[in-house]
Structure formats: C-alpha cells, structure tokens
Design a protein that fits this description.
The complex is a heterodimer.
Chain A: E1 4-9, H1 13-24, E2 28-34, H2 45-48, E3 58-59, H3 62-67, E4 72-75, H4 86-97, E5 101-104, H5 124-137, E6 140-143, H6 154-159, E7 165-176, H7 199-203, H8 213-222, E8 229-238, E9 243-245, E10 248-250, E11 255-266, E12 269-279, E13 293-302, E14 304-312, H9 321-331, H10 333-338, E15 342-344
Parallel strand pairs in A: 1-2, 1-4, 2-3, 4-5, 5-6, 6-15, 7-12
Antiparallel strand pairs in A: 7-13, 8-11, 9-10, 11-12, 13-14
Helix pairs in contact in A: 1-9, 4-5
Chain B: E1 3-8, H1 12-23, E2 27-33, H2 44-47, E3 57-58, H3 61-65, E4 71-74, H4 77-82, H5 84-96, E5 100-103, H6 117-130, E6 133-136, H7 147-152, E7 158-169, H8 176-182, H9 193-198, H10 207-217, E8 223-232, E9 237-239, E10 242-244, E11 249-260, E12 263-273, E13 287-295, E14 297-305, H11 314-323, H12 326-331, E15 335-337
Parallel strand pairs in B: 1-2, 1-4, 2-3, 4-5, 5-6, 6-15, 7-12
Antiparallel strand pairs in B: 7-13, 8-11, 9-10, 11-12, 13-14
Helix pairs in contact in B: 1-11, 5-6
Classes of the chains: A alpha/beta, B alpha/beta.
Chain lengths: 366, 351
C-alpha cells in the first residue's frame, strides 16, 4: 500500500474529523497541522483530539508548513472563507506553488471551476492564478465536500448514468434540526418572523453566486446542457403556539420550517432543482417531505429514477454533515495525488471509494 | 463535439441503445450492424419506430470498419451465448482498426483485472495497435452493485460491510427457457443451472462487483461463497410463460459473499420473483438497495421506471450504461477500462 504524507489545514468542525481520520488511517501520515486559534498553537495534534501525542504540533507558521515535504494538503479552513476569499485563495496558490496537491472543502464553488460556466467570483484572473500555481508546483487542486461535492452533484449525476434522457433532476435535502444545539438558528431564520431577511437568505439573493450554483452547473454540464439562469424561491411555515427544541423556544408565529430551492434553467425550462427542507417540527406542512437526515433524488425522464439516501453517525450530534465532508477529502487523496497537475473535478477523477479501516466490527443490528 | 457512432446489434439491449443514440445530441449514428440478412438495407429508424435516418443496416463488417467511426456500441449478446470467442474476435478487430468500443458483452470483461488473462492481453494488444479503448459494462455488474456503493463509500470513515440487494419482478418477462434456467416452476431439489453457473467466478458475472468493490475500498478478500435460497408456491398459479405448480419455486434469492478477516464484508444478493405471495420479506417490486455499515452508516434505495420494454428497466439500463459512456471512453487513454477507472459522467439530455 502506498502511503501519503499529509498536512491538515484547519481544526474546526470538519478539520477535526480530517485530523482524526489522517491519524487513524495506515496509508496516511500526518506531517503538519495548521491551526488558527492561538490556544491551539504548539499543541500536539493527538492532544487536540484528546488522544495521546503523535509528535506533530499545530502551527500558524505557514512558511514552515509550506517548506515541509508532503504529498497533499487537506484544506478545511472554512472560517477563513467567511469574510473574504482573498486569504484562502492566497493560501491555495501558495500551497500549490510549493508542489503539494490540495483538496479543499472550504470554498464551495471550487467543486466545479469551468470558465464561462462558473459563478462570477471565479474570475478568469483567479482561475489563471490557481492554474499557474498548479503548473509551477506540478500540483493538483480538487474541491469537494458533501453539499456541494456529493449529494447535490456526484450522486445525482452518477444515478443518471443509466438514463436515456433526462427532463429534470430534483435533489432534496430533508433535515430535522429539532435536536440540534446550534448557534446558527437565527442565521438560518428559525424563530424569526416569516418575512425577516435572515443572514443565510441574504447569501442566496444572488443565486448565480450562491453556494449551489456550482452543483447546478455541474449536473447540467454532465447532462450535456448549459444553464441560462438560476432562480431562488423560499417558503416558511409557522405555528400558533410556542415550540421548544434543543436550541431554545421558538415564539408563536415565527419560522419553524423552511423550504427553499434553486433551479437551474436550460433552454427556457427547469432542468435541475436543488431543494432544502429544514424542519424543527414535522407538525407543519405535511405536504413537504419529512425525515431525519436524508437526500432524495428524483430524475424525470426515461428511465425515471427515484432514490433516497439516509446517513447516520454516532458522532457530532448524530448529524453526518462534518464527518462526510472530511471523509470525502481524505478518501480522495490517492486519486488526487495520482492525477495530472491542474484544477480537477469529478469529471477528471476516477470512481473511487473509501478505505475500509482494519478494525473489529462494533455490534450492530441488521 | 459530436461523436460518430456505430450501433452493433438490434436485440433487446441494442434497440434501446439505438434509440438512445438517435435521440442524443452529441452522438451521430453512422452505421448499424445487424446479423439477420433480411434486416440488412432497412433504415435504422425502422428498428425503433423513429423517422428515417438515412443510415441503413448492414451485415457487412468490412463496410462498418470502413466508416472510421469514433466508437462502436456493441450489444450483440445473442451472438455471445453460443460463440463467446466470436465476440472477442469482433472486439479485437474493431479495436485494432482504431475504433473505440463500448460493449455489454462479454460480462467477463467488465472488470479486466479479474478477466481471463489471455483475453485481456489479446485485447490490450489490439488497443495499443489501434490507439483505441474498450469499456464493457452492464447495469449489474457495472453500476448498481459496484459504481454506486463504491461512490457512496467516498463519505466513509469506517466500512464494516457493504450489502447490496437487487429485487426484480420477472412475472411479465420470463420466457419458458429463462423460467427453467432460473428454476421457476421447478422442484427445489431439481438441479439448477444457476447454481452451476454462479458457483465459480469463471462462469458467473456476479463476482465482478465483489472484486471491484473489494479493490476500491481495500478489502483483501480471503474467500467467497455462493448461496441460493428458494421460496415455494403455496398454491398453483399461472404466469404468461406457463403453470407454476404448488410446491415449486416461485422466488429465488441468490447471494455471493466476500470474506475478509474471517467475516462477510461484502454481501451481494439478488431476489428474483414471479409471485409476490411468497417470501415477501425478501423484498417486492423492482429496486436496488445498498447499505454501507460503518461510520457513517448509509442506506440508498434506487428505483428506476421506464414505460418502454414491458416497463422493465434491465435492458434499457444495460444499453444506457454503455451509450452514456461513449464521450468518456473516446476521451480516455487507449486500453481496457473498467467502470471504476473512468471519471464521472451522466446520462443524456434530450434537447
């Protein structure tokens, strides 16, 4: 088995999962760890996870990290992308120039970098810069994740491999956040009046630059079509009485369930729709789908396809969001290291799977 | 970019492929190979109730080779049952001529790593000589028990077991000979051709998915086994292919299992039925289901529906598994390719 030397960049929700994965996999060797929080700097990577030390300490010295010999950097520093893309793009360019391949989950839209197709902020100048960095370093950049990166693009496209024609693809994420202790509830609009413009919704006001644009463009491209436009719509549901959930009490008349969707139009008709149904309760809008954490893919065409995928994990408030982003990054390492230099996507890498960890099975039913 | 494509074969899979090629922007039908001389000279459109295309069917292989097509889509399953070597001869001829080939036959070549060495070497030589590529696929193997579960495991931290099930309703479909072959209407004690076929990877297509999945996720298989269970008719009933007597087989459940670390790590099961009254707990309807046990645990259910072809999806999905691959196979480096060493592609979009 080949082994890969890996630098982990970021130790947040996703980064911690990646770090643990790198440490527990025999084919991966941690050689460097980039942290941001001053309290983490100088702390051993193993200790950060509450385990025994492994001899690699977290650092904020980027020059020292880039001077290391490594096959690949796993870039999960989402925090750096929330203010502006300047810092992460600088990081990526320097990583690539230093001759290391890079797998990034942090910038959603990097899952599909295609001139003329990609969202506006992926300017030619920015793409040129990253491509030059790949060329100088002989290195590869792959953007991936879960949504986007898997459930909204790779999975539905893979399902259409058996379709003769496709009229429309709908991908629906259904999550019940009742047990979710999150500080993001207001950000997502929960507990606010139905017409309140929550912060998250502001991100969607420019649909062609929303985080979903890349997946919509990717699915359309895989079907041999281009998109003329992307539209965004939203509905919310309220209750007449208060609702108590893990994150707090939602006042009567405030948002307790949201359905929002982005549609990519091609040739004047809808071709791909990405829909989210996020609930704090199943007692409103029974006509919307219900579920704990699942994705539905519906392909209208011939053959028509209906597929449903459910995930469960014991970690992370039982939500598989962060762990799946991290694992998609780690599982991609062999394929990305083997790929020729440049910016690559699902359209360039072979089908690959995860690695089966060599450990005894836990007891489970079924 | 438009690819010039020849459709080879007009059987149950070939017709679907032909219809798909004709309806697909980006693919141009330039030739149609038929076996029955009576069909030669007919317009390709006639085979699928489509408008005339100007492309006439031919049984002249030299004429097909002279077209210099980008790709031949080869669906001559009928020809392979009696003459497996003839298929290899065809593939070799096409590949050596510089033509890429997507094919649903022979199934033994879907995963070249475990295919017969001599055949692989012959065809690799032909690909090298012609600068061409070969891609063999069906829907299972080639999609539902390998590409799909492997793709799911991209999100896995730990994988303990991958379990896939195919449930098919054969009541409308089974011909008398297929009924016999599958054991329907037979005594449970009667010798079953299926058991002989699936007992060894040398004759069964069921093991290709096991090998692909094991390689992709890093299971080092120590052993494998085949099992068959049957469900018996409680009452005598009629199907289009004949009478099913009480006490004879109405449902078969076949499984191939891959063993590593002394336990089953891969379990692929097929439930084929002609009655919904027998062993409904094995699954009813037509769907594929896969479960990845580990962290995270994942479950995917897939249903496909078509209005064509007695509403059965098997032939059309075998056809599309091949035709949809054409642009990717043409772009690939010369050689033999498996369903897991090529990048992502999707199905067709009809303009």
């Amino acid at each position: 088995m080949s082994t890969y030397q890996v630098i982990q960049w970021g130790t947040g929700n996703v980064g911690r999962h990646s770090l643990r994965g790198i440490l527990e996999r025999p084919e991966l060797e941690l050689v460097g760890l980039r942290a941001y929080n001053p309290e983490k700097i100088g702390v051993d990577a193993g200790k950060l996870l509450g385990d025994s030390p492994v001899g690699v300490v977290a650092t904020d010295d980027v020059d020292a990290l880039l001077a290391l010999d490594a096959d690949c950097v796993v870039y999960n520093a989402l925090g750096t992308t929330l203010v502006s893309l300047d810092q992460p793009v600088d990081d990526l360019a320097r990583i690539l120039e230093s001759g290391k391949d890079c797998i990034a989950s942090a910038i959603d839209l990097f899952i599909f970098v295609q001139r003329g197709v990609a969202p506006a902020f992926l300017t030619d100048e920015l793409i040129d810069r990253l491509e030059r960095a790949c060329e100088r370093g002989g290195s590869t950049l792959y953007g991936t994740g879960m949504t986007p990166g898997f459930a909204l693009d790779l999975l539905p496209v893979t399902l259409t491999r058996v379709c003769r024609n496709v009229e429309h693809v709908r991908i629906t994420e259904i999550v019940n956040l009742r047990d979710y202790r999150s500080t993001m509830m207001e950000f997502m609009g929960f507990g606010l009046p139905p017409d309140f413009d929550a912060e998250m919704y502001k991100l969607f006001e420019d649909p062609p630059n929303s985080p979903y644009a890349a997946s919509l463009a990717m699915v359309a491209h895989a079907l041999g079509a281009g998109l003329d436009s992307i539209t965004y719509e939203r509905e919310v549901a309220t209750l007449d009485e208060p609702l108590e959930v893990a994150a707090g009490v939602m006042a009567p008349g405030t948002n307790v369930a949201t359905r929002f969707w982005f549609t990519g139009h091609s040739g004047g008709r809808p071709l791909v729709t990405i829909e989210y149904v996020w609930r704090l309760t199943d007692d409103v809008r029974p006509d919307w789908p219900v579920g704990h954490c699942k994705w539905e893919v519906e392909v209208t065409g011939d053959p028509g396809i209906r597929s449903e995928v459910e995930f469960s994990t014991e970690t992370d408030a039982k939500r598989p969001t962060s762990i799946t982003v991290a694992m998609h990054c780690l599982n991609a390492i062999p394929a990305v290291v083997a790929a020729p230099p440049g910016i690559v996507s699902h359209f360039d890498l072979p089908v690959f799977g995860g690695r089966a960890l060599d450990r005894a099975p836990r007891t489970h039913t079924g | 970019m438009t690819f010039r494509v020849v459709q080879w074969g007009t059987g149950s899979v070939g017709k679907h492929a032909l219809r798909t090629i004709l309806g697909r922007p980006g693919l141009e039908l330039v030739g149609l190979r038929v076996y029955n001389p009576d069909k030669a000279g007919q317009d390709a459109g006639d085979f699928v109730d489509a408008p005339a295309t100007g492309v006439l069917a031919t049984d002249d292989v030299d004429a097909i080779l002279a077209l210099g097509a980008d790709c031949v889509n080869y669906n001559a399953l009928g020809a392979t049952e009696s003459a497996a070597d003839a298929v290899i001869d065809d593939l070799e001829l096409l590949l050596r001529s510089g033509c890429n080939v997507t094919s649903s036959a022979p199934e033994s070549l879907i995963y070249p790593r475990v295919a017969p060495r001599a055949v692989v070497e012959r065809l690799e030589k032909a690909c090298a000589d012609g600068g061409s590529s070969l891609f063999v696929s069906g829907v299972n193997p080639g999609f539902s028990m390998d590409v799909l579960p492997i793709t799911m495991t991209r999100l896995s931290r730990e994988i303990e077991r991958v379990h896939s099930i195919e449930v098919l309703d054969m009541v409308e479909y089974a011909s008398r000979s297929a009924m016999y072959f599958m054991g329907f209407g037979q005594s449970p004690e009667a010798p079953a051709p299926l058991d002989t076929m699936h007992a060894t990877p040398d004759t069964s297509p069921f093991y290709a998915s096991l090998a692909m999945t094991a390689d992709a996720v890093g299971f080092e298989l120590e052993d494998y086994r085949y099992e068959r269970e049957v469900g018996l008719a409680a009452e005598t009933f009629e199907v289009s292919a004949g009478t099913i007597e009480r006490g004879t087989i109405a449902v078969v459940k076949m499984g191939v299992y891959g063993v590593a670390k002394g336990r089953d790590v891969l379990a692929n099961e097929w439930v084929w039925r002609i009655s919904n009254d027998v062993r409904p707990d094995w699954g009813i309807g037509e769907y594929w289901e896969m479960e990845i046990e580990g962290d995270p645990s994942m479950k995917l259910v897939l249903e496909a529906r078509t209005k064509l072809d007695s509403k059965r999806v098997v032939s059309i999905t075998v056809a599309t598994a091949c035709v949809n691959a054409i642009p990717t196979v043409v772009a690939a480096a010369p050689g033999l390719h498996s369903p897991i060493d090529l990048p992502m592609w999707g199905g067709g979009h009809l303009a």
